[in-house]
Amino acid sequence: MKFTTIALIGIAPDAVTAIRADFSKQSKAYVSDDMITLTSALMGEEFPNPSNQELAFAISEIYGTETGVDENGIYQISSVFKQELMEKGVAKIEKDLEKHNFYDAYEVFDFLLTDDFLKVIDSYDRFPDVIITPDNQFIRASQAFMYIDAESPDYKEFIAWKEQVKKILQEHAHTSCSLILDCHA
Questions:
Q1: What element of type H or E holds 150?
Q2: Parallel, antiparallel, or unpaired for β 66-70 and 73-78?
Q3: Which positions ≥6 away from 49 have C-beta within 8 Å?
Q4: Which phi and psi angles does 130 have, rounded to 5°?
Q5: Quick one: how many helices (H) and strands (E) in the chain?
Q6: What is the reported pLDDT for 24?
Q7: Angle (deg, nearest 10), helices 80-100 and 15-23
Q8: Which residues, in sequence order, are bridge partners of residue 74?
Q9: CB 9, CB 92: distance < 8 Å
Q10: Taking the chain (185 residues) in consecutive chunks of 10 residues, what is each chunk's mean pLDDT?
């Protein structure tokens, strides 16, 4: 079973502005030859010898990243700072995650300032089933609400869970970052 977990990582309120400014810093990362080979194969026979521009467009479509081409080749735009924060966040909470023993494996899906996460949480395909607060409080939904709709008998319970999660996020909106994990059990 796959489910989403939010791990809130506490930060000083005055650090939020600095983090927000650094999030916007982007850098170029040139794609590997393996990625170009795979992308070319995925493009199929209609593009027997794709140009770098066509490859960049295909990479953007396949991986959902911003791409470009310059004299050095095809590149993706990424936030190195965000990647560093994700790695630091995992290092900070990894032992606590293991103590809760609620997953077999996980992958980091995203890292956002919690106030920004509140703005987009409703757009997530799978609403989070678990939230871990900065003080390591483990809060889990009464059940997995993976495919629930308004006709479901558990819909009211799901709405109550959504409101509880949003309330917790709001309480920590200006003093935390949200590490969003795809967990597997």
A1: none
A2: antiparallel
A3: none
A4: -135, 140
A5: 6, 8
A6: 67
A7: 120
A8: 69
A9: yes
A10: 92 85 74 85 85 91 84 83 83 92 87 92 85 95 83 92 96 94 88
